[in-house]
Amino acid sequence: MSSSHEWPNKIRAEVGKAVIGQDAVVERLLVALLANGHVLLEGMPGLAKTLLIKSFGTALGLQFERIQFTPDLLPSDVVGTMVFQPTDGKFIPHLGPIFANLVLADEINRAPAKVQSALLEAMQERQVTVGGETHLLPSPFLVMATQNPIEQEGTYPLPEAQRDRFMFKLIVDYPNEAEEQEMMRRWGQVTEEPSLQGVSSGEELLSLRSQIDEVYVSDEIQGYILSLVRATRPLPNEEKGEKNYLSYGASPRASISLFQAGKALAWLRGEDHVTPAIIQDLFLDTMRHRVGLTYEAEAEEITADTLLTKIIEETPMPSGVLSSATS
Predict the structure, then answer these.
(1) Domains in the chain and their CATH numbers?
(2) Is 305 within 8 Å of 288 (Cβ atoms)?
(3) The pLDDT of residue 180 is above 60
């Protein structure tokens, strides 16, 4: 599967002109693009989340739109509205910025629930209703959203139904010392800005997705995915003194997302089949936003990642493919 190397490498090289480091996040964004999944990025201010997504849009040659979410944003500012034409006395639809291939919902948690819910139909159905008329969104269509984890004033938590529509929630961390030093060296000249070019297209991305469908997922791996996802749902055994740390578990949409993402990541890494190691690698990013923590977990400072890592450790891997996971 040598063809799986040229496309991601040219995208990585072009994005790397503007963004240094964040290799794991870049790989996950490539997976989401190939698996037709939306992405939520969370990280401290100044970590180039917005620049990263914008760079992807440029490198992919896709129509890119940025929506800055604010408390006074209206649903019509996202999906569009009906505009009166005085010449003929009719209303015509004025389509909003959601009608693009790659939409950046910047600081998505700053908009109230009414605006966030305007994205639900678009993210799930790839269509928008304006003035009672349904309009199909362009293909490919992906939403990549950012949010700040530390500021609470003027923010609105995303509804569970909307979080579930993101394939991944990625944590963008600080760069290491060498990467930060390279940033200073490269971008220390205030007159220079990164200049990116389109090295792909929406048509190429859509054609690659047919190759993702050919990646093999064995019955054992499918069972492993189900075991991991379903392990987020059981209630605690109070007779054994277990505490209730999860208020709710992941939905069946999580199983489908992990299945699709596993095939895309296997293809990116030049594999023709999905291994347990690939599923484990994707599990936290696919699940951390789909499970709810109880007050007990928050009081004891137990995170979703901690509980999900424990599930990986306690869930038996399929015996017939153990060698694939370690190869």
Answers:
(1) 3-187 (3.40.50.300), 215-321 (1.10.8.80)
(2) yes
(3) yes
